[in-house]
Amino acid sequence: MTQAEAYFVQAKSDLDVFEALAAMDRTTIPECHPLHYLQMAAEKIAKAICLAWGIPLRADGYSHVAFSSLPQHMKTKWRHVARALNKRDRDDLRSFLDRAQWHMREIEELCPAVGPRGSGCAAPKGANAEYPWEGASGDGATAWHAPATWRFRLLVGSDGKRTYGLVQAHHVTKLLVSRFDRLAKLP
């Protein structure tokens, strides 16, 4: 198995766990757990594609930023990527990637090493799906927050439905995993 294939196998496994956890009742499995698996799946499939294309991983290979940089790499191979992802043409692929890129970054920012979260994001600076963080309480005092009790509102919005951002990030991750064999063979 190559390094790219190993990242792909783990990404597929992480995505399967995300889907299983996301389907469970939020009173049983807090939102942070499926979100953590989606973040890991997205990161690993992006790294698998980069490795297959001969693009070196950032820094020491353990950087958690890969998913949101993938659209730039894909645009350099747009014709082949469009065909592999069943997109009609360059504009269709570009539109798809442009719509997804912000959500790709939002999922990446669930990793504590990636933050800080910017304005307009679903969660405040420091919020992540893995470790407790220090922030403000409801009355403005300093308090610690646990991911297991935090309402990220990425998995399910206040209306009880899956959020558009999560649907986009999940769709892109699932598409990349399902088409990895095609993507990995691109020139």
List keywords for this structure.
single chain; 187 residues; mainly alpha; two-stranded antiparallel sheet
Question: What this model shows, in words?
Answer:
This protein has 187 residues and is mainly alpha-helical. The protein has one domain. Helices cover 50% and strands 4% of the residues. It is built from 7 helices and 2 strands, in the order αααααββαα. A two-stranded antiparallel ribbon has the order 1-2. Helix 1 runs antiparallel to helix 2 and helix 5 crosses helix 6. The longest helix is centred in the N-terminal third of the chain and has 21 residues. The two termini are 20 Å apart.
Largest beta sheet: what is the strand line-up? 1-2
The helix content is 40-55%
The overall strand count is 2
Q: Count of DSSP helices?
A: 7
Average residue pLDDT: 84
Major sheet summary line: 2 strands, antiparallel
Gyration radius, to the nearest Å?
17 Å
Shape: elongated
Query: Which stretches are low in confidence, meaning pLDDT under 50 for 5 or more residues running?
Result: 117-122
The secondary-structure class comes to: mainly alpha
- Our count of domains comes out at 1
Instruction: Kindly estimate the percentage of residues that lie in beta strands according to DSSP.
Output: under 5%
Distance from first to last alpha carbon? 20 Å
Can you write the helix and strand succession as a string?
HHHHHEEHH
Describe the secondary-structure layout.
Layout lengths: L2 H20 L9 H21 L17 H6 L2 H7 L5 H19 L24 E4 L5 E4 L18 H15 L1 H5 L3
Antiparallel strand pairs: 1-2
Helix pairs in contact: 1-2, 2-6, 4-5, 5-6
